[in-house]
Amino acid sequence: MAPSNNMDAFRELLASSRHIVAVAGAGLSAASGIPTFRGAGGMWRKYNAISLATPEGFKANPSLSWQFYHYRRETALRAQPNNAHRALSAFSLPTIRQQISPGSTFTLITQNVDGLSQRSNDQIAAMFPEEGNTADEKLQLIEMHGKLFDVSCTAKDCRHVEYNTKSPITEALGGTELLVEHGTLDPDIPLEDLPRCSKCGSLARPGVVWFGERPFHLDDIDKLVEKADLCVVVGTSSTVYPAAGYAMEVQENGGKVAVFNLDRSEGDEEADYLFLGPCEETLVQAFGLTIPENGKISVNTPSE
Ligand code: APR
Ligand code: ZN
């Protein structure tokens, strides 16, 4: 049966679901000015993923790879969470979620490394101080592909990881983001001018998961997916595994799947619900939220 785009029916499903997971991708951050990977103007259309986002590519030319990740760091630092991030953060907050899906649990599993969901969670938690606990304790977020702002040591006997939002991350990389933006990369930044481990001084790498590497938190995610009765898929082409397989697993376990995407994506014809359009609009509608420019997010009453 073709997926439904009946928003009222989806809201009823949301209200009766008990264990909800969301799986998000680059489309979630598109409205924040972060390019996606495979869509129009996507990063993998402009740059070579194999040479920039694989352990082998980094080993062969860390300067190229670091310029690419420096560019992505600078882009993410300039970006702000959008209403799709905020809608998911609000739904993560027990006070808000209780009004939409009473008694349910929720975890956001993101493939994004830009840190915008975490920033949005922090902003929302600050808006609801009465909730007491910090964002991390309450708002369940799993960054399965790591973090752009984590810097990891490449030395086997060290592996020190540090959260670092320094801009530029090294003097030598400063300004290269403009080159990258125009699709060119400066091949000759000396190794010693690239990011180094603050503990042992060895070459450091971005704390993200590269093609061919094992994503983070897979055991936790597997437990959540096994238990889930609703999987909300947001802004992903559903082409990269294991993330692309979670929705089908939930459905095979008798759960439901709802896809929120700008364009058609892999396997969406199997979903129970499909809402095509910008997720910064469709998610807000689906959760029945009002997100004012300034001020507190609230849940619309049924008549609204
Ligand atoms: N709202 C909803 N969806 C959107 C929006 C938007 N505003 N803008 C773009 N999209 C959709 C596109 O239609 C596309 O299907 O987001 C999807 C982005 O797909 P990809 O670019 O393939 O990104 P993603 O699915 O996150 O890639 C998965 O691949 O490159 C690796 O590790 C990287 O995490 C990434 C993984
Ligand atoms: Zn080290």
TrEMBL record:
Keywords: Metal-binding, Mitochondrion, NAD, Transferase, Zinc
Residues binding substrate, per UniProt: 69, 72
PANTHER family associated with the record: NAD-DEPENDENT PROTEIN DEACYLASE SIRTUIN-5, MITOCHONDRIAL-RELATED
Binding site for Zn(2+): 153, 158, 197, 200
Origin superkingdom: Eukaryota
One Pfam short name: SIR2
Active site, per annotation: 145
Protein name (record): NAD-dependent protein deacylase
Gene source species: Agrocybe pediades
Entry EC number(s): 2.3.1.-
Family listed: Belongs to the sirtuin family. Class III subfamily.
Principal place of residence: mitochondrion
Cited InterPro entries: DHS-like_NAD/FAD-binding_dom (IPR029035), NAD-dep_sirtuin_deacylases (IPR050134), Sirtuin (IPR003000), Sirtuin_cat_small_dom_sf (IPR026591), Sirtuin_class_III (IPR027546), Ssirtuin_cat_dom (IPR026590)
Subcellular location: Mitochondrion
Cofactor(s) required for function per UniProt: Zn(2+)
Molecular function (Gene Ontology), one example: NAD+ binding
Record: residues binding NAD(+): 25-44, 111-114, 235-237, 261-263, 279
Occurrences of domain Deacetylase sirtuin-type (ranges): 1-297
Function per UniProt: NAD-dependent lysine demalonylase, desuccinylase and deglutarylase that specifically removes malonyl, succinyl and glutaryl groups on target proteins. Has weak NAD-dependent protein deacetylase activity; however this activity may not be physiologically relevant in vivo.
Catalytic EC class: transferase
UniProt keyword Cell membrane present: no
Cofactor note: Binds 1 zinc ion per subunit.
Gene Ontology CC terms: mitochondrion; nucleus
